[in-house]
Amino acid sequence: VYSHETGVPAVVNVVVGEPLRETRSQGHFICATLDWWPDSKWSPNPGSHYPWANASVLHLDLAHPTLVSAVAALAPLHLRIGGSLADQIVYDVDGTFQEACLEPLPEPNATLGYGWGCLSMPRWDQVADFCRAAECQVLFGLSALYGRTPDPSSPSLWSGHWNSTNARQLLEYSKETRFPLAGVELGNELDEPAGIDAKLPPEGYAKDFVLLRGILEELWSGEGRGGRPLLIGPDSSGFNDAWWFPQFLGNMTAQGTNDVALDVVTWHAYTLGSGNSSAVPEEILNASFLNSVADKCRNHSHTVATYAPNAQMWLGEGGGAYNSGQDGATNVFLSTFWYGDSLGTFAVQGHDAYCRQALVGGNYALMNSTTMRPNPDYYLARLWNQLMGKEVLAAFTDGALGGNGTQGDLRSYAHCLTPEERTRLGITGPVIFLINLGDAPREVELQVQGGGTRAPWRYEWRLSSPSLTSQDMYLNGKLLEPDPATGKVSTEPLPPAVVASSDALVVDAYSSVFLALPAGASSSLLSEGAQAAAGLFSLRVMRDRGRGGIDIMVMNKLMAMANPM
Length: 565
Known about the structure:
The chain has eleven helices and 30 strands.
């Protein structure tokens, strides 16, 4: 916006610093998934039509050095094993299914076009060994259809009662072998009316969770709530705030308590729609489209706060575009814009974790399933884990709160730095994540006000790529890739550029940057007592005739905003 009357660039104000909330997940905000889809899974979307080759949890090379090191670099990572076929998997704990313990095979008239598959205990042990080596914790999706059958009057609606016998066998085995099991789910996208195939009514489904909660407490008795695996669900395909979720949550009060049986409420979101849509690339860079996510998150968070106030809320599965993503859109540098914006929005709007579909597999994975080379979104996830702490701060652009569904092409999010990064860098300031969806650069001036001493430097982690459709990711101009000699991904923190405060800061077109500013004294910012700066960052965004600009003024010690919540 340019004032033709005065010839002075219009000013847009952005304020960052006020604490909003604190995420409550036991691990990092970032979570990733593995699926059951076999090699034969076909995708109608542009590009690769068989994107699940060697990516199923049954066949993935869990000893691959790139995979092990990449997951270790995200540690501690919650690794969700679930997805569409999770309800059609049995567990061969005692040899009952040994002769037919196979992957799900195509079956035209079956649910989702596949028959039942089987998980052997040797493979389960390999998953355990993988997570011990990579320092991950498993969230496992149990079958909620075991024991049930399709209702003759409505094949998509399943009737009968959940048979918990096989699930209990697996849980007992996992307890005995000290499997790194952080949580269990029950069913995948079985909600009415949005479920992708099989559906369950909310009342009976809620009772299944109460039963499963009892099994967990029995098997892990004496270890307390923090010792047993979390109970997570329902991993819904939609989020019906009007009736399904209120009835589901209202029918699952844990025995002897006023709390729902669930520790974590989850839902799934593919915010870009179908991976077969030609509009996906344009949607990723459309600020108005990205803004539409916030209202859904806000409404769903309100429902959970009303009916399950003590439960955490996670996005249990999100890969941008559903039905395996879109090759050339959700697995390239372009994808970092919707993904980064979603992480910021979901954190602002009451969510405690975000599980990315998928770690490997499909056209939306963090890693290439053929080469295991990390895709650009992997490195964005790395930086989010490394820098963005549990304390979520407000970031206003021209009065529009980041994550509130009102920002334009310049999008801003802020958290307190993680404790590890504060110690490593020796600073206490917040970290700002800026996304530039536009085709013009933004120039930024830094200025310290409010009683603090201007620091002579700042830290920058700039993310860029040669093109939007490239699978290469550059950090501060350096290509990020596994070691060519060993194939391993470095587990060391991704280093920043140390930039003199007197140097201009420019956010390039189609790029993003994490920015950490040393900000004076620390304070107890939120209820966990995390030490972080309570700084107020005022960003003035100026645009002239084709050259943008941001003027950032840093004012220390916003102590009035730093009282424990």
